[in-house]
């Protein structure tokens, strides 16, 4: 039998590719062969940013499939992209799997896919290939998605839509009623349901609502379900869906390594600039890969940063403003001088780890949230869409490690509000203390003995290679390192791994017993 070979398929967006790439690199270190599948459009971007050598072991290869859109079509139109993926991706993935299996001695033995692309798991099931589903966002966001039937039954949202023209599904029926699933989870406004705040067009909202309901099936049907979070951050979320195994924060588990999978070239000069700044002085400003401002808001942000009279590092993508290239306020660049550093993309993990960083003005994407928390950096929250409003609630209301901006006329966050909130955060010792304490809890969870520690991932990786990737699922890993099997035995005995035991105990017992028999016989 050849090497275990896992096909990895993320939803084609930056925040989904990064955690799956992190997990893929970790599995490759365990000797598992990885075929990482981006869309052709994103594949070109990753190659441009990082080249083909994303893994020193040579076990991780990059593959691609079409997304069904033409050159020049806007991939930031999520509804259009999602609809196209549903039409073309199943056949493309099936053909790719057949092609790989025909040309590679190491047949694909497991499909690891983003729950947001549940169709990839459907293809694997159709071909009889074992499946692992990863949820790359917060556990509570998954809980909310899985609660759609409950919300329909309770009359919180409409299932089928009563408008004969729009046929909109998932419409909030009580738009002013805030709710929460438990005292330790964020409070939710119905208009912040995931499918409602990605796009204002009702037709797109319907596409996404139906897509989410389809993807929810993956939690039931996948052999394993993983989440890029941890019990320390979201205990109640994991209690509500016991099948899901916490393995995050993936970014925290590997924050000393270079992240692969970014779509933009990183500007390394920002690290040299940070080295020149005093400890705890720099405002880091970054809004991920999707946030777009109008020119008025962009200029207010620039002027607000200037008013703080503090050094700042600002990630300004080429496409960060609507319609045309961003224009700084007149004289802004000259006035801030070396006190402000603007780059098109930054190595965010390294930036947030730098001792000069004081706070993080963030869009609150889940990867950014985990990276800020993992480095004890307080937040100023500026959510844009999708799950970012939920993450803002976690940051400000549950963990209390950040502040929210207040919007003024026309929904603009003004320069004075930016200056005021920076000063308020800088003067709040309690927020900084809580941020450091939360960092320590996260470090503990990815450290030895924690719920998401590296040893846990090592064990899981070897388990995948010797259970999913073995022809006989009852036979253990002959030649498997004794240290790993002892790790399995420790997991079975450890109260810290109750959730891991529930999922794997029967299978691990078979594996350990078979190994012991082989050792005794040979």
Automatic annotation (TrEMBL):
Membrane-crossing segments per the record: none
Every Glycosyltransferase N-terminal domain range: 6-57
Coiled coil: none
Gene3D superfamilies assigned to the protein according to its UniProt record, in alphabetical order: Glycogen Phosphorylase B
Keywords linked to the UniProt accession: Glycosyltransferase, Transferase
One Pfam family this sequence matches: Glyco_transf_N
CDD domains: GT1_Gtf-like (cd03784)
Domain of life from the UniProt record: Eukaryota
Protein family (similarity comment): Belongs to the UDP-glycosyltransferase family.
Name of the protein: Glycosyltransferase N-terminal domain-containing protein
Organism for this UniProt entry: Hibiscus sabdariffa (roselle)
Lineage, highest ranks first: Eukaryota, Viridiplantae, Streptophyta, Embryophyta, Tracheophyta
């Amino acid at each position: 039998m050849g090497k275990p070979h896992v096909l990895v398929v993320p939803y084609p967006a930056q925040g989904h590719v990064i955690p799956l790439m992190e997990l893929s690199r970790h599995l490759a270190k365990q000797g598992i062969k990885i075929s990482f599948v981006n869309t052709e459009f994103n594949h070109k971007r990753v190659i441009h940013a990082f080249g083909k050598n994303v893994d020193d072991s040579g076990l991780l290869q990059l593959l691609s499939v079409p997304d069904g859109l033409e050159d020049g079509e806007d991939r930031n139109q999520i509804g259009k992209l999602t609809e196209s993926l549903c039409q073309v991706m199943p056949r493309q993935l099936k053909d790719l799997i057949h092609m790989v299996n025909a040309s590679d001695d190491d047949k694909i033995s497991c499909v690891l896919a983003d729950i947001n692309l549940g169709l990839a798991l459907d293809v694997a099931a159709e071909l009889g290939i074992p499946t692992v589903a990863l949820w790359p966002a917060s556990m509570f966001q998954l809980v909310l998605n899985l609660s759609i039937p409950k919300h329909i039954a309770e009359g919180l949202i409409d299932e089928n839509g009563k408008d004969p023209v729009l046929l909109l599904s998932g419409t909030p029926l009580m738009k002013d009623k805030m709710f929460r699933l438990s005292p330790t989870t964020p409070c939710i406004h119905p208009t912040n349901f995931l499918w409602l705040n990605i796009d204002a067009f009702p037709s797109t909202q319907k596409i996404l609502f139906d897509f989410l309901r389809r993807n929810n099936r993956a939690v039931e049907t996948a052999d394993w379900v993983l989440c890029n979070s941890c019990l320390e951050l979201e205990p109640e979320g994991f209690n509500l869906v016991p099948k899901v195994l916490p393995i995050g924060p993936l970014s925290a588990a590997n924050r000393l390594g270079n992240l692969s999978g970014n779509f933009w070239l990183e500007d390394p000069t920002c690290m040299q600039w940070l080295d020149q700044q005093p400890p705890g002085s720099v405002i880091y400003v970054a809004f991920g890969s999707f946030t777009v401002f109008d020119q008025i808001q962009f200029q207010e942000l620039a002027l607000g940063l200037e008013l703080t009279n503090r050094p700042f590092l600002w990630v300004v993508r080429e496409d960060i403003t609507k319609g045309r290239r961003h224009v700084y306020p007149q004289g802004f660049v000259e006035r801030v001088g070396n006190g402000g550093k603007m780059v098109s993309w930054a190595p965010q993990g390294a930036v947030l780890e730098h001792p000069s960083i004081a706070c993080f003005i963030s869009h609150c994407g889940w990867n950014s949230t985990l990276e800020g928390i993992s480095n004890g950096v307080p937040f100023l929250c500026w959510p844009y869409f999708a799950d970012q409003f939920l993450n803002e609630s976690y940051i400000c209301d549950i963990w209390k490690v950040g502040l929210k901006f207040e919007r003024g006329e026309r929904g603009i966050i003004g320069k004075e509000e930016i200056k005021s909130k920076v000063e308020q955060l800088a003067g709040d010792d309690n927020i900084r203390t809580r941020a450091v304490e939360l960092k320590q809890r996260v470090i503990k969870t990815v450290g030895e003995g924690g719920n998401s520690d590296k040893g846990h991932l090592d064990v899981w990786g070897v388990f995948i290679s010797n259970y999913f990737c073995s022809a006989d699922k009852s036979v253990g890993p002959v030649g498997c390192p004794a240290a790993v099997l002892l790790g399995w035995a420790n997991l079975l005995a450890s109260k810290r791994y109750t959730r891991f035991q529930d999922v794997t105990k029967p299978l691990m017992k078979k594996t350990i017993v078979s190994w012991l028999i082989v050792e005794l016989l040979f």
